[in-house]
């Protein structure tokens, strides 16, 4: 604050140092007699260490018409904000050669090909698969005090080569080491796997399949058969009560009718037209175009069913981030459980830990009971036989092991319970209607649907399950 004659000039710098304001403090009796010089303003700014971004036109107007700005704050200097850097990202040039068109194609003679509906995108040895675009550092800004303001640098990202993939010396590009099909597996590693094709059904003529690569089945997978792949599994027909395990993704064109048999597990995504009476687990997403009926479906991130029909009825669905469909349930209030807000495997791990803890507690009880009997013998003044001394040593060691195991399990249980509180960004989205009979679970928060909801998003807000209308 600087006093000059019958007025005072106060300069205030913003917290981010990108703006300075000046306040011309004048008494009512001195309003008409103010004479303010530009040198006085610059001196006040210099005293407050304002050196850069001074708005000369504001200084001039302030001095020309001081009564206009009396007892009011006016911006007198503006700095230059830093420009944050951009995050690194990865481009996938091979995707440019993959067609998004699906469905039957018309042949030259006018007939429609209903058999070769899906083309399998392959890459060749030496083909560029991924290119890392590095993060940028950003551009520094300037504070009104003249100091540089450092920008926020962009986040770097690691390019992750998997099997049959090589990178350049700088580790910025990935190339295919063999001919095959691209597959993303755990932690978004990019792989190229050889392709094993079955030109019909997986039946007694083919048998079970266990292939270190990607498996393409141009028919159906029948009851009781098993297909395992370290890459992806693509089925152009349907899957019955079979077992499918893929480290990558699983795509089933004609749907799953499992009759409560078998299991389908993918490390990344599962895509299909419908799921009925099946047990399905995906590390990332389950994407269904038509319906999910009376099934157990788990996804580390999302379960999406929003095609033209997009209906979910019955069963238990668990997703870490979101469950979305056009229609949930039916007029008959068929019980349907929707659980979001935590990865399903965490929920299962917690259940396993609670079971293990019960066993540990029971074993500790029995161990303490045995040691108690031996201690009673010692307290009575009797000596323990050799056999009982050996038993005492064994029980003491067992107790130490059980105590350690108990502490580890209890610590992990606490960690899981914190993650299960439902505080994460999770949602259930209804694009058309949700009928009564639905049980919503966000971590440990539970809500039973007792009336119809139309176009609604269910989220956790301030520790409670709340609703918002979808636009």
TrEMBL record:
The keyword Ion transport does not apply. Pfam families: FapA, FapA_N. Residues 10-186 form the Flagellar Assembly Protein A N-terminal region domain. Keywords: Coiled coil. Transmembrane segments: none annotated. InterPro entries: FapA, FapA_b_solenoid, FapA_N. The keyword Kinase does not apply. Residues 392-419 form a coiled coil. This is DUF342 domain-containing protein. It comes from Brevibacillus agri.
